[in-house]
Design goal:
Blueprint: H1 2-29, H2 35-60, H3 69-88, H4 93-118
Length: 119
């Protein structure tokens, strides 16, 4: 279970990196995010949620938590994309792109810290 938890975390990191590159491309080209980009953000969120669920199962099965900050980073990572959606709602396409780009970078940082504190 611990290996699955780590693997899903790595998948979340790759998806978040894709979101960063994609959001920067949207900023540079001054395009609005479409449904495919939104789908990528949902995939990032779902990957983090699945990793969190696997982490809980791993912990409950008796594997000790290595660093308490891991739980803090997980909570923050689960909250970033919903917060980004709330902040971006009702803004211009350019402002939405900026908010999403910042949120994607924050997500990569948090997932990176999750991987570091979980290893």
């Amino acid at each position: 279970m611990n290996q699955a938890h780590g693997l899903v975390g790595q998948i979340a990191l790759v998806l978040a990196l894709i979101a960063v590159v994609w959001s920067i491309a949207l900023l540079v080209t001054r395009r609005a995010a479409g449904p495919l980009f939104s789908g990528n953000l949902v995939s990032v969120f779902l990957a983090v949620a699945v990793a969190a669920a696997l982490g809980v199962v791993t912990f409950v099965s008796g594997v000790p938590l290595r660093d308490g900050l891991h739980v803090v980073y997980a909570g923050l990572a689960l909250g970033v994309l919903p917060a980004v959606a709330l902040i971006a709602a009702g803004r211009s396409a350019r402002e939405q792109s900026i908010v999403v780009a910042i949120g994607a970078v924050v997500m990569v940082i948090l997932i990176g810290r999750l991987i570091q504190t979980g290893s």
